[in-house]
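S.,

Sequence below, as promised.
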Amino acid sequence: MSLRPFKKQRCIGSTAEHCCVPLCEASAKYNTVLSFHTFLVDKDLRKTWIVNIRRDSFTITNHTRVCSRHFLQEDLIEPPKTNGRRTLRKGAVPVLFQWNNYSVPVSRPSIWQRRKHPSDEPLGEEEPVEENHLFEHDYCAVPDPAALDLALQQTDELREEVERLRSQIEDLSVRQRFCLRRFASSDEDIRFYTRFATYNHLMAFWSLIEPSTGKMLRITRARAASKKNQDIIPCPATQSLQPIDEFFLFMNYLSLGLKQRDLAHRFNISQSTVSRILVKWANYLYTVLGAVCIWMSQKATKAHLPEEFKDYADTQVILDCTELRCQTPSSLLLQSEVFSSYKSHCTFKGLVGMAPHGAVTFVSALYAGSISDKQILKESGIVQLLTQEMAIMVDRGFLVDDCVPCKVHRPAFLSSRSQMPASEVRETQSIAQLRVHVERLIRRVKQHKLFDTVIPLSITGTINQFYTVACLLVNYQNGPLVKECAKGQ
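The prediction came back faster than expected:
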């Protein structure tokens, strides 16, 4: 049934009652044709009204109204007088709404009404019932083998389709996430993000450290704040990142020098989580890699001595210092401690030792940039590792002959002489050609872009761990610096 027409007209003196039916904008303030009816007292009818107007959990007040446009014409009782009020027939419910186009919903006939009954057919001669209609289903019958084979074939095809779709979904998920698997097929990307030569090279290193990753511990802030309440909590089993992706995040930070906020956006985690992962992995790798003895015996060093070191066969280690620029502290006293006159900047300074064949065999802690090369050699602890049969190769600035028990190979000084003898010139040139390898080694360390920028003072608490890990990783990330090695002496 369609709604009868009405017009809106301002009604002077009428109360501003509104219709509570959704999508209905009728108001008693602008209508003289429509009437507005309160909800019935009967609980069942009231519940039917609420269900019909689609207002679940609806609070009804004395001013809640439903306008007459939602009722059938036969449910409305017109007043006997012109100024009387229109009322509703007993049991009337609203059924006309905008969502049903103001038409009476047609109820579907029941099953009994849809079936034909013998009483509905005209009386006459009964038709004979065919015997085929009386056959019942044989539940003991065996299915056709051909149909069974077809069903099994279709099942196998559907299973293969499900596996294929699952694989596609997994590939799409990996492509959308920033993780190690996303770059597994590109050795160039692996070198860019981790400094490892190839993906297989990286996975070989991961296989060395993976067995102990489950034993990593996380120290809570309560432990750091109070020594009384010490609680070391193992890493939770359910983490936002897998351990190998946490390692990949750490290598991104070390290799590219990315900001922590950038890493948080890349890996879709919070910045505080990134900070915890970096500190955790820096301490973990510092412990694991630091537990490996990298100092070589004199016999092992000679067994791998390159041919070009034949004139300096007693060389045990090539030493050199490197400096990392750091943020200028606000304290003038600290500025004087970390300021380096060589770099004209505030720096951290460390000592690196390399075996003649190119492996890192010694890494010192970082010191303030104002420390001298001689002092850092004394405090680093390498003097205790040297013996009289050994020799070290150093730069011109290492005047350490009086503090080491071994021979020192160092380029000669011109001093007050106008010209060096030919023998000293040749010796200086040969030592310089051999010392260049330790500078190449330091360049490999500084390819980790974290050390290519000014180090903020906020990470000075863990900068030793980051620096040591970067130096030790050089032994795993690349091939040897000096490729041609002697088979033995």
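The chain is about 35% helix and 10% strand.

Coffee later?
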